[in-house]
Specification:
The chain is α/β, with parallel strands linked by helices and 164 residues long. The protein is built from six helices and five strands, in the order βαβαβαβαβαα.
């Protein structure tokens, strides 16, 4: 049957406890999970691609997720999934507002590459309101985000906003 590989794509600017909750649970379902960091400069990320990858790698070590690896991509997600031999794309759904966009993307991905399925996962209830955008906004005003992101991410956010 082969190795069951899943891709968990996103910008992860920055990674949050919500992302990590989904990642941790997905790592129990699949043989390998690739957290694929999108190199999408159009979104105007706070952290560079290299910084995002490094923060994620630190979290993977801390969480002891041995079957999770980090990679970057700047192609169509479906092409990336094909190249990696993945049959599943994991997407997080926090609220109904996420659903319409994610549903459209899942249907388009299926049309482009029917061999890949999209698996929607909801984070633990305590993280349903957490988004990278909200985390950055709170941090930009000097608020504590320790209940939303790991310590390494919070430290990097403080560093970023101290200089701006």
């Amino acid at each position: 049957m082969g190795e069951r590989i899943a891709i968990y794509p996103g910008t992860f600017d920055p990674i949050t406890y919500g992302h990590l909750d989904i990642l941790e649970r997905a790592s129990k379902i699949f043989d390998k999970v690739i957290i694929a960091v999108a190199n999408n400069e159009r979104k105007g990320p706070l952290f560079s691609l290299e910084e995002r990858v490094e923060l994620i790698k630190e979290c993977i070590l801390e969480y002891k997720l041995k079957n999770v690896e980090v990679d970057t991509f700047d192609t169509l997600l479906i092409e990336y999934a094909k190249n990696k031999g993945a049959k599943v794309i994991i997407r997080g759904l926090r609220a109904i507002s996420d659903f319409e966009y994610e549903f459209q993307m899942a249907l388009m991905n299926r049309k482009l590459y029917p061999a890949v399925e999209t698996l929607f996962m909801m984070p633990n209830e305590q993280y349903t309101y957490v988004s990278s955008r909200i985390v950055k906004e709170i941090a930009s005003y000097g608020g504590s985000v320790s209940c939303l992101v790991p310590a390494n991410v919070e430290a990097k956010l403080r560093e970023k906003f101290k200089t701006s």
